[in-house]
From TrEMBL:
<dbReference type="GO" id="GO:0016747">
    <property type="term" value="F:acyltransferase activity, transferring groups other than amino-acyl groups"/>
</dbReference>
<dbReference type="Pfam" id="PF00583">
    <property type="entry name" value="Acetyltransf_1"/>
</dbReference>
<dbReference type="InterPro" id="IPR016181">
    <property type="entry name" value="Acyl_CoA_acyltransferase"/>
</dbReference>
<keyword id="KW-0012">Acyltransferase</keyword>
<protein>
    <submittedName>
        <fullName>Acetyltransferase (GNAT) family protein</fullName>
    </submittedName>
</protein>
<feature type="domain" description="N-acetyltransferase">
    <location>
        <begin position="6"/>
        <end position="221"/>
    </location>
</feature>
<dbReference type="InterPro" id="IPR000182">
    <property type="entry name" value="GNAT_dom"/>
</dbReference>
<keyword id="KW-0808">Transferase</keyword>
<dbReference type="InterPro" id="IPR050832">
    <property type="entry name" value="Bact_Acetyltransf"/>
</dbReference>
Length: 227
């Protein structure tokens, strides 16, 4: 193993401090980042504990330089988020009490409304999906990359590629036939990065604030059936 090799491993609870820092660095203007480190720690801790997710950390010279998280089973993740919801709500409320002047406009804005709608969908009963006894033989499962972050100093060294491959491998093991993600549309987004690696563009949709997001998809090639 060379000192410059990217090492990817499953995320552990001891990684949460670096994950929170990388989240803040990559998305400083996001609502969750504005809620502060305590909320982000609670959020990523719940994500890590969910049986419906996959999470990996990348290291260079034993130093964490990036992470990826995503959903590999929507049904299992919904159940986990139902259990975590009270902790997340309490962490958000505490952040608001500590910084009301700063957070009140953000929590009353369209981004917060969008996040609440997403949370409400997660709390709803989920329909049968692939891997359950009631799923049909033709059912498919779609994984979702929710966060991919690489520290500024480690970009251009294959960290993002290594993290993506780890997630795609795990999603396939969990029965996913497709994986999607959303990136900012236009020149400032990362769509060309994904397209160069075999991802295909799907729809473009807008956030509650009007920001366009390009949805990219990875479809696994059909597996050969032994004769």
């Amino acid at each position: 193993m060379t000192s410059s090799a990217v090492q990817v491993r499953p995320m552990r609870s001891t990684d949460l401090a670096s994950v929170v820092a990388e989240h803040q660095e990559s998305q400083p203007d996001g609502l969750y980042a504005r809620l502060g480190d305590r909320f982000l720690h609670t959020y990523h801790s719940a994500y890590l504990a969910s049986p419906g997710t996959a999470a990996f950390v990348a290291e260079l010279d034993t130093r964490p330089v990036g992470f990826v998280t995503g959903i590999v089973s929507t049904a299992a993740h919904r159940l986990a988020m139902k259990e975590a919801w009270p902790r997340l709500a309490a962490a958000a409320a505490l952040a608001l009490l500590q910084r009301p002047a700063t957070l009140r406009p953000a929590l009353l804005g369209p981004t917060a409304v969008s996040c609440l709608c997403h949370s409400a969908r997660l709390l709803q009963p989920s329909p049968p999906c692939a891997g359950t006894a009631t799923a049909t033989a033709t059912a498919t499962a779609t994984g979702i990359v929710t966060y991919l972050a690489v520290t500024t100093t480690a970009r251009g060294r294959g960290v993002g590629d290594a993290l993506l491959q780890a997630f795609l491998h795990q999603a396939q093991l969990r029965g996913c036939t497709k994986v999607t993600l959303a990136t900012q549309a236009g020149a400032e987004g990362a769509a060309p990065f994904y397209a160069h690696r075999g991802w295909t563009p799907e729809s473009v949709h807008r956030t509650a604030t009007g920001r366009p997001l390009q949805v990219m998809a990875w479809t696994y090639p059909p597996r050969e059936v032994a004769q």
